[in-house]
Amino acid sequence: MALIVHKYGGTSMGSTERIKSVAKRVAKWARAGHQMVVVPSAMSGETNRLLGLAKELSLAKPGDTHSRELDALAATGEQASSALLAIALQAEGMPSVSYAGWQVAIKTNSAYTKARIESIDDKKVRADLNAGKVVIITGFQGVDDAGHITTLGRGGSDTSAVAIAAALKAHECLIYTDVDGVYTTDPRVVPEARRLQTVSFEEMLEMASMGSKVLQIRSVEFAGKYKVPLRVLSSFTDWDIDINEEAKSGTLISFEEDEKMEQAVVSGIAFNRDEAKISVLGVPDTPGIAYQILGTIADANIEVDVIIQNISKEGKTDFSFTVPRADYAKAMDLLKAKVLPALNATEVTGDAKICKVSIVGIGMRSHVGIASKMFRVLAEDGINIQMISTSEIKTSVVIDEKYMELAVRALHKAFDLDQPTA
Ligand code: ADP
Ligand code: ASP
Ligand code: MG
């Protein structure tokens, strides 16, 4: 008997039919003798619907005045789906109870719309498990010290599930979704993408942070920190397939770098359209400039990603960086109001129609010429590179958004990701 955490995404919970199928699958695992904790997302489209209603009432952006209420609002999506799943399980004859994050409690900081989990109290959950119940805990949300409901950022149910698995020292955390594992790239963009049987933790971390939304980045960070065994698999297989077969399906996030993984130089391609580029032109090239520009952005709780500073000409330089697209307008306003006059800079310009494409692979550590091959492939398709950033196991480029799919497909082919591995 093991303690297992299942997480079901929005599509997997998308209708009462789907919820029934999830209930049957969970009941199968419980009847096999496992203690089950289930973390559902809101039914597909629900989070967008709720946030859309708020937008009809106010055009203020998240991070502005309504953040607390937006979190209280969005959190209801998971509260509804969790209660529905508990009802479906009970209708299956399986005792179960659902809790919202605040009831557990899952404690977070107070950064509304992007809160971080700080602690999870396991008392109630353990008591219910020991009483033979399936415990359902809402994904995506928690509660801060003052008792306000918080949410963990889009895709945050993955993080809830892994954090709960870590707190309960679960045997495994299974992330059920609408694809049957982690692919070499998003199979919806490149139909030739292949499923990876295993992917190293480090590669998954880079892929998630570079935009592969199959797992939220923080869920991978938690899995790494607490060594939570993690697997991504499909909720669209028949619910009554053999449980041992199901337990081996999908993609395992592996903490061991085996030889086979070393062979693939590039394991995957990630992309994201969620960033915007900002340039501050004509700033004095003196100590403290980067701090003045980026410090202002950081103080507004806006994350900065790729950064470039040009060589100076006549004591002046240009400074460019990317921010989440959702924070673009706010960042531009701040820079224009505060940094532009303070630094006597020439201009603040921006472009929200960019995307970032990244190649990821631990084999890049031991192979040279991978980045230059990436640049050649993009050049052959006439794609201009605006910014470049690298780490030991990835190279990312910022390019015009309209070339995103072309770039991803060309790179996928050039690095032989459509070919079966030996
Ligand atoms: P859920 O609602 O289950 O959390 P998401 O939509 O958040 O599902 O994530 C699953 C989606 O991630 C897939 O449908 C797929 O389009 C996308 N995706 C992006 N990159 C990858 C990848 N490398 N492998 C698999 N899926 C990916
Ligand atoms: N429902 C939330 C979202 O749509 C959280 C999640 O699905 O993981 O972002
Ligand atoms: Mg998701």
Notes on the protein architecture:
- The chain has 2 domains: 3-256, Acetylglutamate kinase-like (Carbamate kinase, 3-Layer(aba) Sandwich); 268-414, VC0802-like, CATH 3.30.2130.10.
- α1 (16-31) crosses α3 (67-91), α7 (201-209) packs antiparallel against α8 and α11 runs antiparallel to α12.
- It has an 8-stranded mixed beta sheet, with helices on both faces.
- 36% of the residues lie in helices and 24% in strands.
- With 422 residues, the chain is α/β, with parallel strands linked by helices.
- It is built from 14 helices and 20 strands.
What descriptors fit this protein?
single chain, 422 residues, alpha/beta, Carbamate kinase, VC0802-like, 2 domains, 8-stranded mixed sheet, 14 helices, 36% helix, 24% strand, globular, binds adenosine-5'-diphosphate, binds aspartic acid, binds magnesium ion
How much is the average pLDDT? 94
Number of strands: 20
Low-confidence stretches: none
Helix percent band: 25-40%
Q: In the CATH scheme, what's the topology name of the largest domain?
A: Carbamate kinase
CATH superfamily of the largest domain: Acetylglutamate kinase-like
Structural class assignment: alpha/beta
What characteristic shape results from the CA principal axes?
A: globular
Total helices: the number is: 14
Beta-sheet strand percentage? 15-25%
Main sheet makeup: 8 strands, mixed
